[in-house]
Give the backbone structure.
Amino acid sequence: MRIGELARRTGVSVRSLRYYEEQGLLTSTRSASGQRHYTEDKVDRVAFIQRLYAAGLPSRTIIELLPCVDAPSEGNSDAAMEHMERERDRLTGHIAELVRTRDALDGLIATGRAYQQRLRSGASV
Amino acid sequence: MRIGELARRTGVSVRSLRYYEEQGLLTSTRSASGQRHYTEDKVDRVAFIQRLYAAGLPSRTIIELLPCVDAPSEGNSDAAMEHMERERDRLTGHIAELVRTRDALDGLIATGRAYQQRLRSGASV
DNA sequence: CTAAAACCTGACATTGATGTGAGGGGCAAG
DNA sequence: CTTGCCCCTCACATCAATGTCAGGTTTTAG
């Protein structure tokens, strides 16, 4: 498929797809005229890249990890393994923090709802 | 306390504290000579701001939410409540995504470990 | 064949949080 | 008084991902 279709199917902008390629995260074959062509599996890869981005991994890190995805257990250096574990732990900590923040938001929301409830039931300010 | 101490105690750079103030997220009293002075409770506020930032809320959003923190249930407009609920939901979705990503990383790590195990036990490539 | 739609490269713009540096006060200790 | 450290403002730099525009080629549909 060409870049437009990949963009449509992944919800990622054409610009970003070219950027991923520039960063070495995504590969494509080129037609004689220079147009990029992608295989079906690139859809999943783009989705995965997006998730890593969303997880806050910088592309530098993603570049290190992708070989492990491409060739699971082929040349996974100890360094790469350690890097993955570090990122996993970082992510775990980050998740915990987000959960705390969400709980704080929930608390605020509950307080606010209770107040609105009181208002509606006729209490004056 | 002055800005340097607040920075030290929160682990946030002096630059960032001034930026928070510029964004209306943090207040300070000024001494005659113009130096910022903070009360003890600002330590917690800065920590909270940092967590909201870490949760990916842009300062625009944080500005909307902070009044609800400052005066719980006082003038919480419906709009602010809705905004908080939206952010809470967004956060929930984001957390779920991060968990998925972490699980994917875990999978890669497990695969890699198994491979290294095989290597160590004498299998050749 | 032609027009529209999609693609190409390259470059500059943007956003948000933060770094950094210049140039200048404020204040305590020696 | 001077040295050193902390503070002030202003302004420009940075980083990463993405947007956007320009000028040009390719593909597709009619």
